[in-house]
Amino acid sequence: MGRITGPVCRLCRRDGLKLFLKGSRCDTPKCAIERRPSPPGMVQKRRSKPTDYGIHLREKQKVKHFYGVLERQFRTYFSRAERGKGNTGESLMSLLERRLDNVVHRLGFAPSRAAARQLVMHGHITINGAKLDVPSYLVKAGDLLRVKNRAKSLQLVHAALAEFRRDVPEFLSRGDGPIPEGRVDRLPATEDVSIPVQANLIIELCSK
User: What is the DSSP letter of 192?
Assistant: First the structure.
């Protein structure tokens, strides 16, 4: 799957739930899935019962769309989770939650994960005092994220924080001083995942 360049609201309608791909717009009546909850397509025909493979594939696609990762990236995360200790599904979701762009978004520094990726790539965020412009960087327990002390960076983040309407997850903590910062208190667990997902279906599909 290549990078999605068309209307991202179609992805929410296809997956049947809000993926929060357009920031604060998803919390308003303008959200496409609330106005048109049916799957995208000009002709709505009676759809046959989804196959077992289709159910597994849709679960994987939903997670990829939510975190904004491509197929090769997803396979890399799966391989790493499979080699690790413990439940593979829980490890996979923990790795995805640890992505720097996801953490920046969940701290409220960006209205969406796409905006968080751009914020990181343009050098507006530092990790433990060092500039890092890799959105796929996996944060570790104890990492300190801080907005770069320059006017443009602070303007972007303060604007996002003014519209932030969701709670900061328990594995993170945020300081709302003149220069916003956040800390990774611990690695994310199953209860910290912000999307309803049946990880066992993804593992069954990727293990074939």
Answer: G
